[in-house]
Amino acid sequence: MNISMNMESSSSLSSSLSCNTKKRKNAAVGAHVKAKRLKTEQEGDEALQSGRLSRSPRVSVPLDCLQQPITLNELTELLHYAALGKTGGIKQPSWCRLRHQRKVKGLNVVIVEGLTQSHFYKHYLSLRHLRTKYTTRVTFTPSCNNVASGIFSSELPTVDCVYFSKPENDMHNALKGHPVIAKFGTQRRGLTAYVLTQEEMIKKHYPVKGMPGFEEFVSTDSVDCVTDSSPLYGLDCEMCLTEKGNELTRVSVVDSDGNCVLDHLVKPKNRILNYLTRFSGVTAAMLRPITTTLRDVQEKLRKLLPGDAVLVGHSINNDLMALKLIHQHVIDTSLLYRREFGQRFKLKVLAETVLKRQIQTEEEKGHNPTEDAVAALELAQYFIKTGPRQVVELHLEELWGYTIEEEESSDCKLAPTPSLRFADVLQLLSRSVAFFGKRSDVALNLSNQRWYSSDKEMLESFKRQTKHPFLSVVQFSSFSDHLKRRFPHRERLHRSVCADLRDMCVVFAGPFPAGFSEREVRRLFRCCGPVGRIKMLNTSVRVHAEVEFELLEGATLALKTLNGLNVQGQHMKVQRPVNESLLDLDLTLDTLTEDILNTSRLYAVKLKPSVAECIKISAEVNGHTLDRKCSGVSPVNGLPAAKTDQLQLTDTRSKLSEETVTETFGRFGTVERVILPAKPGKHTRHACIKFQSSEGKHAALSSSKDLRQENYLICQSLTPPHLPSWVAMATPVTTIGGDGEAAEDENKTNMGHSSQDLEMDRMMQKLDRRLGKLFRSLPDGTLSAVVLLGHTSVNGHLPGLCLMEVKQGS
């Protein structure tokens, strides 16, 4: 894609300049960059107009929706449509457009923990791959803690069952995609077929002899192999919360006939913080006289259980962990009655549906472990006796939400209900799904999860794949883990990032005449764009002001147009803040103008006639005087005074409308859209103009002097179109309910910006390189989404960012 390739080369030039000193950034380099940028944009426009890219799948967000944050629901809405399309009964997403959906060959979602939208723009220069390869960006607000699970288990709307219900020859074929049948087959077998293997026990976090973390556990005297006639024992435990975590308070064991052979209360070793009576049924009064210890119970179990005993329980790994017991042969009923994506039924639900028995009722105070042990035992015995196929057929609709449709042709189909989940539908269509990342609780079958100890290991494995899954979710965790270790006070770090971003919109101005007010400063500076916070800096001699614009363009125009203005006989100086975090600001702003999202966008401000008369670039009209009361302009250098009525704030000639802007700028090229970000009930004096091609933007920029005669100030767009306000994006967490500026100021003086920013830049560059390698390894036609999750704390949250692109052929 020529746009991306040329933009990457242009960005590479900008990045290399960051290593040079300010003195080496001369006019010749600036002219070269400008010429190269113009060539890049024109080539990109030609490519689009010639149709080379027109038939490839593309994702875009209408301007009406671009500044609205999306959540996981909107992201899955896009993924559903990309995978199934209108043929599957899925409508176009409500917030974006995916063209040529049928040519999408796969879906890849990368989740980056610990990163926010603010991090992206703070370290914008370091993220060359992300800022040049992804043409769509929207603010992302997380709506759940586990985005990966949310994607796999997202429920589809009512879909066309004919699309994914494949006619089969018999009931066996109709059921073979069911998770129980896929694991155990259809034939009835003995109990040994359902005993967990050692590999399964390790993956499911069961205590296994020889594995790290279980050195202090006690092992039972189990034989190496069991038979189909080996005895079953039901087991259930109750726990309480102590200073050291969950500890055992009660254990029950029943034999194959359901008779209770062991039921003991146990005194925890450590101080109890919460008895968890609502679940365990154990109270302080019950444990007060108890002297039985965990060691006593372990010895009794070792003596009680024969060598070939098979322990049965529901999520029995939790019981064995509480007992600190290793037993080689177990059956877990939560894994017999399997659900899609690794989810599990509650014991209460299975007992009610399969055994037609009520347990754990509200009338009872806590669980009865003997009752639960019997229920788990009988569920296992029923499954073994009945066989997996019969179990599924008998309870298909009650438990799994499916129905079997029999047609006149005697063909059978597995017809999902409208609430069928996304990964399930894909697998029914024989499209593979997979999760890559650290071991975590993801709503997906273990066979589809691939766990790694580091992002580097995960990336290498992902690149080595000969066949990519249709849907892959890749979770990068190393960055978040490093942040937690390196910056334990993460709120300070986030406040620092936000403060640096806000400084990009700040200018210092002065001196002003004595008594010059905040209102008058605002009135003067808002001619360049919407003004946010103003802080008056009064000394015993002169008056200065710190002016914070809402947009980057406002600060840029203020530097160009107001610096050197003569205010009541005093020449006002306008300049940027000077601190370490802004040393590369000029490079960042140059790169933002080259941003692929800004190639055809222009920022314009409509001046009031009287202000236009006053505000001239100092090089053109030196000494022009602005009266602080705005009652007129002192005649200097032979210029006439302005009329009073021209200076009123209600002067309608300074107000913008879509029609007037289109008419004015339409002569430079086709205007695709005019965005007037006015608040409800108020007029606006600034606009963002999107041309159909970059040629229109550059034609307008080359005519900036002529436009100034028409009272327009213009500059290249800097603020990305998905951000309604740069400052709003950089609002620190503490403003939601904290100590605000005091905390921020303390943070800025104590954190050591230079070393911190350098370390963060290196981390960002490393992350960006890895994301680039992953993107290049994807098959052509893959819809790629990178989700920076954002940051949530007790004080509020900082939003994340979602970047989207369909990978095109070379």
Task: Set out the fold topology.
Blueprint: H1 2-17, H2 27-50, E1 58-60, H3 63-66, H4 72-84, E2 97-99, E3 106-112, H5 117-122, H6 128-133, E4 136-140, H7 147-152, H8 161-164, H9 171-175, H10 179-184, H11 198-203, E5 218-219, E6 232-242, E7 245-254, E8 260-265, E9 272-274, H12 277-280, H13 284-287, H14 294-304, E10 310-313, H15 316-323, E11 325-326, E12 330-332, H16 333-336, H17 347-353, H18 369-386, H19 388-400, E13 402-406, E14 412-416, H20 422-428, E15 433-437, E16 449-451, H21 455-463, E17 471-476, H22 478-486, H23 490-503, E18 506-512, H24 518-525, E19 531-538, E20 543-549, H25 552-561, E21 566-567, E22 570-571, E23 573-575, H26 585-594, E24 601-606, H27 609-614, E25 625-626, E26 633-634, H28 658-665, E27 671-675, E28 686-691, H29 694-702, H30 704-709, E29 712-716, H31 726-729, H32 740-750, H33 753-777, E30 782-788, E31 791-793, E32 796-798, E33 800-806
Helix pairs in contact: 1-2, 1-26, 21-33, 23-32
TL;DR?
The protein is α/β, with parallel strands linked by helices and 810 residues long. The chain is built from 33 helices and 33 strands. Residues 1-52, 161-170, 406-419, 617-653 and 732-752 have low confidence and may be disordered.
What are its keywords?
seven-stranded mixed β-sheet; elongated; 810 residues; single chain; Alpha-Beta Plaits; Nucleotidyltransferase, domain 5; alpha/beta; 20% strand; disordered N terminus
